[in-house]
Specification:
Chain lengths: 295, 295
Amino acid sequence: MAVMIGVDWGTSSFRAFRLAADGAVLGRRSAPQGILHIEAGRFAETLRQHVGGWLDEGETRVLLAGMVGSRQGWVEAPYLACPAGAAEIAAALVAVPFEGARVRLVPGLSDTDDSGVPEVMRGEETQIIGALTEIRGDGVACLPGSHSKWARIAGGRITTYRTYLSGETFSALRYGTILGRMMTDGPTDLPAFDRGVARAAEPGHLLHHLFGVRTLGLAGKLKDVESASYLSGLLIGHEVRAARPRGLRVHLIGAMALCSLYARAITACGGESSVEDEDAAARGLALIGRRAQWN
Amino acid sequence: MAVMIGVDWGTSSFRAFRLAADGAVLGRRSAPQGILHIEAGRFAETLRQHVGGWLDEGETRVLLAGMVGSRQGWVEAPYLACPAGAAEIAAALVAVPFEGARVRLVPGLSDTDDSGVPEVMRGEETQIIGALTEIRGDGVACLPGSHSKWARIAGGRITTYRTYLSGETFSALRYGTILGRMMTDGPTDLPAFDRGVARAAEPGHLLHHLFGVRTLGLAGKLKDVESASYLSGLLIGHEVRAARPRGLRVHLIGAMALCSLYARAITACGGESSVEDEDAAARGLALIGRRAQWN
């Protein structure tokens, strides 16, 4: 017996889950219909297209998380400030008008760094909540990606987090600088990735290390097929060294391929990590949905 | 009475100088004909097009510096290892076949960083040699740009140097990431540039600071017209803090507008600098040419 529909609706993709009371995924739909691909005003239509069948079968509750709650999304849900856990998030859901179901939006979380510069996330908070059982109330979660998030968890709440622009910086350097001219696409070359991670520990700033990607290639010490993997390791190595709190296991949440690379870099830096399964978003939606007032 | 033609021939531009024995510039030609814009095999033709008149008037010596001596250039001049000064460079010139004049190439300089990663420069060595009179034999030269160079000078020779990919990283981030979507082009907003420089001194890695460019914009704390200048200050601030040796005046060599921004960042970091005049390349060519064997 399903009790809720959960939707992880981000910038580039749409993923819907039909969820049991215990969070089990009874059905799923996904489509490359992230909010950037939805014409203005067609959010309700797109939602109905994917989950209309489940609604016809009796579902009445839909919980949305991700960039769908941003200014560029369906309805803007104001950010909730850290620290926040499932209870605070469930109490701050935003209702979205929709015929035939009660639709609610999960708010993103805001924070400020040590210098008072704002932090924002939308969607990752739901994945972290979904991984809380594994994290057991206290620890560190890392969600690698275009804008990697490193969150501290205490007492089952997200207390603070920091963002690193690593993924987007990789793409920008790969496709927008002279470094990319020596790079070929293909699967990650792990020894080259490891060399990049090790390079991040050497003296010199990232901006200096970046030039070395070129000179190692010119000197015949880095092959074209290795160069992109080395750059990836260099950036991830810098991120892990800057972001990882010492002595705490890192819970990696996200796509397995990228999480595996982060796990590798964390090990190389002397840390420990584990990769959570990819349904953290579904579990987070179920956990928040169970605590919510649906009236 | 002129005695030599000097040419600074880089990736994107061609600059020729008719030089007196004392290095005075008696005539100049420039064109947007960097080596990337020269069809294969047409280097001699392009050179003759710009300096043929001077050759007809009796000049017989042409000294070339810059990327024209790279694998993608006219003739490849092997790198000379640091430390090297005008004497070592003059002794390592490479002859280029050319009818009607003796044409020589200045070799680039190679070095290795503290971890053994190669460094390369082509053209900057000539500008540094040209600024040696100002540097008075010992000091630090900084040549800001796509690939910024920071060189230590001792006893009139370039002893070692490090490269930072700051300029290219700025362009890649500006035009290839979400940060750029909030940016407008225009003259540098100095207060925003200064804020970026100050941000570089705050806790957190560059990859974290980069995300702040976005969040400050979202929070209304950084205007669209300020955002690119802030990013520029952030990157230059990181570079200056990583590259500047404490207690030494920095001699800035290059285009005045960019050098002025570096001078501003160096001052903000508690350092001192001076901007050398823009004819350093011409003076360097004259100094090297005077020491060369032209037989």
